[in-house]
Amino acid sequence: MRLPRDSPFSPGSDTVPEVWAGRTSHLSDWRDVLRPRRIAGRHERGRTILGEAGSGKSSLVRRIAREASQSGDWTTPQLRIPSGTDPLKRVASALLDLSEAAGLAAAREKRIGDLLRRVETFAVSGVSLSMREQDGPEPHIALIDLLIEIGRAAIRHGDVMAVIHIDEVQNISDENALSQLLIALGDALTHEETVDVPGGLRIERALPIAVYLTGLPEFADMTGARKGATFARRFRTTTLGAIDDDALMSALQPFVTEGWPIADDAGGVGRVFMEPAAQRDIVERAHGEPFLFQLAGERAWYAGTDDLITAEHVRTGWRDAAPEAEAHVQRILIRIPPRELHFLEAMAALPPEERTLTNIARSLGYERTSDAGPTAQRLDLTRGIIRRGRPYDFRHRAIGAYLTSEWPWLNLG
Ligand SMILES: Nc1ncnc2c1ncn2[C@@H]1O[C@H](COP(=O)(O)OP(=O)(O)OP(=O)(O)O)[C@@H](O)[C@H]1O
Ligand SMILES: [Mg+2]
Q1: Residue ranges of the domains in the chain?
Q2: Which CATH class name applies to 336-411?
Q3: What tens digit of pLDDT does each residue of 18-35 get?
Q4: In testing the pocket of ligand 1, which one of 59, 295, 332 has its CB within 8 Å of the most ligand atoms?
Q5: Which CATH number fits domain 24-239: 3.40.80.10, 3.30.200.20, 3.40.50.300, 3.30.430.20?
Q6: Class of domain 243-326 as given by CATH
Q7: Nearest bound ligand to the CA of residue 56
Q8: Looking at ligand 1, which atom is closest to the CA of residue 21?
Q9: What is the C-alpha separation between 379 and 340, in angstroms, rounded?
Q10: Atom 8 of ligand 1, nearest CA residue
Q11: Torsion on CA atoms 108, 114, 119, 122, rounded to nearest 10
Q12: What is the pLDDT of residues 120-132, one digit of tens each?
């Protein structure tokens, strides 16, 4: 019997979803590029992963961090930065925890003891306060020093990385705090450590440290212009788009072929199956959105109690989910500035094959086609909502569907 209690779907909760789909290039970037290169002492930039609300940024890096910690790496938890709070304080206290894992707290060197005490001051009282109280060096210097010590400890330990994940980076509204944070992380990433290698040689190597920053696309503007060049040399930014249907289908395939294992009443393992038609219907409703995928799956699971999820369950379950699905899309649209929103609406109003920049600019009443260019570029490169092909189309298919007659989806099937 399938009970809500056993559902592996997790719309909205900040955990690594059990029913995982896609994002293979990001996972392999961690496993095959970032980690091995850094462990080998080679430089590799930090990673900034941006995307619209619910695109799966936090889940992705949580999953990477979980993998890392399973292989023995020292990882911070996902450090969410609430609006208006002091990010350096939050990071300082997480680094103190890492230094515990790295065994630094037990070190008897006076230099390290002093450093930990300096960082503790920021971790407890916050940066602005502690800066007023003492005339020591700026707080980010202490953070760099601590990051370097953690990196050195990782080198001594061998085959271990320190992984730092800062989430909701768009909330760091204090420009000074943001720049100190980015400098501290960037300096630690570019730091060259001199080490002895067999054969009596001394070489310079990078520290085994990885930094992941995640947040909304607006963060790209905060690091643009002046700070941009240095930041871009130190961090590589990618924007998460929709998950393709093949990957969503594959994620549900275990339900179809062997059944999803659940604990049964007799203390054994039961299995919940899914009709191929139900699998297709869930993927269709998801529109490439991981949140909608989890939502449709969860609702279908809840819609019955036997061990087969049917297309009928997907349909009836979705009826209750429709308001939430709509709220999800609105949560994204509400943050889009009017000029970009008008562009999306004008684009959606045209028949798909007529969605060219010229036609969109004309329906917006612009004098020249090129007037719409920057908006189009932003919607494509920064937000990942459209694709400027011939013709233009919606990368974010849920927004596309919402703005066109394909909505409401609740009547589907
Ligand atoms: N690769 C994935 N496969 C399946 N489900 C996923 C995947 N990534 C994320 N999800 C699901 O999508 C939802 C949104 O994910 P998440 O909270 O990570 O997004 P986010 O981009 O961090 O959103 P926000 O901007 O609101 O913080 C969650 O329910 C999560 O379980
Ligand atoms: Mg998130």
Answers
A1: 24-239, 243-326, 336-411
A2: mainly alpha
A3: 999 999 999 999 999 999
A4: 59
A5: 3.40.50.300
A6: mainly alpha
A7: 1
A8: 3
A9: 7
A10: 56
A11: 140
A12: 887 777 665 455 4
Whose atoms come closest to the Cα of 22: which ligand?
Answer: 1
| Structure tokens belonging to residue 159 | 């085959």
- Closest ligand to residue 51's CA: 1
Each residue's pLDDT tens digit, 206-261: 999 999 999 998 888 787 655 656 777 788 999 998 999 999 999 999 999 999 99
Q: Which helix (H) or strand (E) holds 124?
A: helix 110-125
Q: Using the mean position of ligand 1's atoms as its centre, give its distance from the Cα of residue 54 in Å.
A: 5
First to last CA, the chain: 26
Whole-number Å distance between alpha carbons of 262 and 284: 26
SS3 260: strand
At residue 151 the predicted structure's pLDDT band, cuts being 50, 70 and 90, is: very high
Mutate to test the pocket of ligand 1, among 50, 291, 330 (most ligand atoms within 8 A of CB): 291
Closest C-alpha to ligand 1, atom 16: 56
